[in-house]
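re: ur question from yesterday

yeah so i grabbed the chain u mentioned. its 266 aa long if i counted rite. heres the sequnce exactly as i have it in my notes:
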Amino acid sequence: MYPRLLTTPFFTIHTFGALLAASYIAAFWWMQREGRRQRLDVEALSSLALWSIGGAIVGAKTLLVLRSLPEFSSMSGADFLSSVMASAGDFYGGFIGAVMAALWFFPRHPQLRFWQSADICAPAIALGQAIGRVGCLMAGDDYGRPTVMPWAVTFTDPGAATIGGAPLGVPLHPVQAYESVVCLVLFVFLVWLLRRKRFDGQVMLMYTLLYATARFVLEFFRGDADRGFVIGWLSTSQFIAAILAPLAIGLLIVRRRRSVSVLRPI
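ran it thru and got these structure tokens back, copy pasting raw so excuse formatting
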């Protein structure tokens, strides 16, 4: 793999960092494009995207620190800051952080409706994930379990071990590629659903449900122990996914019933 795109005496461009930036740009582009199609306030929607990205960055790093608290507590201040800044953090922490930023944003921008805007955000998130996980694969981050499958990947670049922690010379499940493909398919489905949705919130809640289900399964193919575990074999992401999936189902039912009651003649 290629953990570094460019190395000079003055700076290094890491593949993961470049693709992470590309994922944010792609998500931002999608939100603007769809906002124009729906004739929404694109300027306000762009502000929402920036606030959500900021919340995602803070939330992702916060969850990283919380799940690795014993490790971080033994570091010096400089090492702690360096480690946190170098890591992208945990996706679900970013997701929760973005939601919290959006909840702060919407009361201050009444020209946008929460659930309608959330439906625009859902495909953008999936698109960004599809790109970002390729960066994880390039860097050896979030690597998979050992496998004998013919499509296994074997990391040989020492940078994959130092940057992402992947073991070298061991055939592994390309779980990063699995998730990238899943998110790309999810993006296509969500775009299709966005054109046919029956009520506001349906697209975002379907994303939450489907991704949580997929992530719960994909975690079984992961081999990086530092992703954290909550209850024995249940990883941090599986624990959060197990909460979000039934919550999404419940909200889908509530939103569906409310839309039907609004449409029903009196």
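noticed a couple things. The radius of gyration is 19 Å. also The mean pLDDT is 88.
anyway ttyl
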